[in-house]
Amino acid sequence: MNITKLSSFDVQLIQQKLNRNEENFDLIDATVKEVMIDVKQHGDAALKKYTEKFDGVKITSLKVQPEEIVAAFQTLDDEFLNVLQEAKQNITDFHEKQLEKSWFNDKNDGIILGQKVTPLERVGVYIPGGKATYPSTVLMTVIPAVVAGVKEIALVSPPDKDGKLHPYVLAAAKIAGVQEIYKVGGAQAIAALAFGTESMKPVDKIVGPGNIYVARAKKFVYGTVDIDMIAGPSEVCIIADNEQNPVFIAADLLSQAEHDEMAASILITTSFDLAVAVQKEVENQLAQLKRKEIARQSIDNYGHIFVVETLDQAYRVANLIAPEHLELLVTDPFLQLSKVKHAGAIFLGPYAPEPLGDYFAGPNHTLPTSGTARFSSPLGTYDFLKRSSVIYYSKEELKKVTDQVVRFANEERLQAHGNSLKVRFNREV
């Protein structure tokens, strides 16, 4: 990991050091559009064709059958089953706190105003395959929808070379409360969820991470359906003072680096000695990792250490980055929390490492990436709820405000708007 000393808040230098080159999406978008049009026109046949083309397997049935789920549970040892159940409870407890309720304000004068909160009816969940298996993502994406009251949840995930989904994904889906599971991935799965096929009903919203083809497909279907976010490569940022343990910091940086080659692991510290110690410790630990090739590329290309003069400067740098995960390894982290303005999830102290949030603590691990924490939030129960305004006026109260509303309408040259009120009181229209 490279070390950069920052004597001032140099925005251009920071961005230059952390730059993850924007991909040219033209070729990707052309492929995605072709796939989506094909799925829209040819349904299941197109899904099977692209599953064979991209995943290298012929499938006869897109939908996972009950016996496949039973078989999945038979491969699950009791210990991990208990871990899944504990994680489910923690995630459920946290997301129940986010529930919104309908409310009404009766002014006792013939006016009632309010907001009606209604869960979405049908949601699609995308679970990646490929480099790793993600039962944790199943829990994190499905449970908030269940807590919100969504009635129908359809999960899609790419099959392996045997035409199967990983048993841990199937088990987690069943535990979380999924009703439908389909063996299809990529842009074709997003198209199927958005437009529907013979096997799949269209959904109202699509959530869950995926590769660049999935991300671009989600971007294209937004408007036909809602989506959670366009997830990019992930990142962890750690702010550390000179009292911290370099072994802990290196381990946390590498826990993010092993995700994929474009993951970014960043340390901001007030101690040059700590920076050097972490730099050495990253190399020591990296050599022991099973996914060291992936972690190596991530650390070499997107890992960085900034040495700053004060903690206040460290927070300014972190807020500029607006990281997906932010660890505060500082004395009295609760006292420092108010200085954080932009972060997807904030981990306080040396015993709240980022992987705790990935799997078990309860807050969602589906987080805004690539600086989007400046304006967006983690996936939550609120993402599966919609709000309708409620307005009631008595005849007497409407009459009192008719002149004001008509004046507004006239100023906007919308005569029929004003007439809508006038006719109720036999006024000339």
TrEMBL record:
Cofactor mode of binding and number, as noted: Binds 1 zinc ion per subunit.
E.C. code: 1.1.1.23
Keywords: Amino-acid biosynthesis, Histidine biosynthesis, Metal-binding, NAD, Oxidoreductase, Zinc
Pathway(s) the chain acts in: Amino-acid biosynthesis; L-histidine biosynthesis; L-histidine from 5-phospho-alpha-D-ribose 1-diphosphate: step 9/9
Family annotation (Pfam families): Histidinol_dh
Gene Ontology MF terms: histidinol dehydrogenase activity
Catalysed conversion reaction: L-histidinol + 2 NAD(+) + H2O = L-histidine + 2 NADH + 3 H(+)
Cofactor(s) the protein needs: Zn(2+)
Active site annotation, chain numbering: 324-325
EC class: oxidoreductase
Coiled coil: none
Positions annotated to bind NAD(+): 126, 188, 211
NCBIfam families assigned: hisD
Family listed: Belongs to the histidinol dehydrogenase family.
Name of the protein in question: Histidinol dehydrogenase
Originating organism: Pallidibacillus thermolactis
